[in-house]
Amino acid sequence: MLTGVLHFNAPDEHLIGFKGHTIEIFYPKANQVQVYDAGKRAAQLDQFILISFGAAGSDLKQTYDIKLAGTENIDSQVANHLELTPKSAEARKFATKVELWIPEGKANAVKEKVTEPSGNYLETTYSEVKPNPSLPDSDFELKLPRGVKRINAGGD
Predict the structure, then answer these.
(1) For the chain, what is the mean pLDDT?
(2) All structural domains of the chain
């Protein structure tokens, strides 16, 4: 079971907390949290989250067709640009392609682009990634302020 918190900075600051089948997206400006039940899709979501943070190549090969699209400079680092196409039809309902930019000799992506079936995409650049630091369990929990409005956004 994957547990964690992702923090996205401006211009669209929000935090995503996930634990088991529950996903919470907190929007500080609105003081609102949307709660989703990932249901049977929880394992698929775990896979998409882990893909940028050092998923083993052998695991990626089982679930994606992988193509090297070249090398590019990202933040003064030479990075391999990989294109991953999900093998399963179920996964392609969420993403038709995942692109990763992984610096030479590193395991974690510094940039990720996920393209949805609609053609819309989410592009994320990661900075200050610290793999496997010593953290207390409380750092893996979404901390919400008092009075936050909770909205059940559904799910499976």
Answers:
(1) 86
(2) 3-130+145-155 (2.50.20.10)
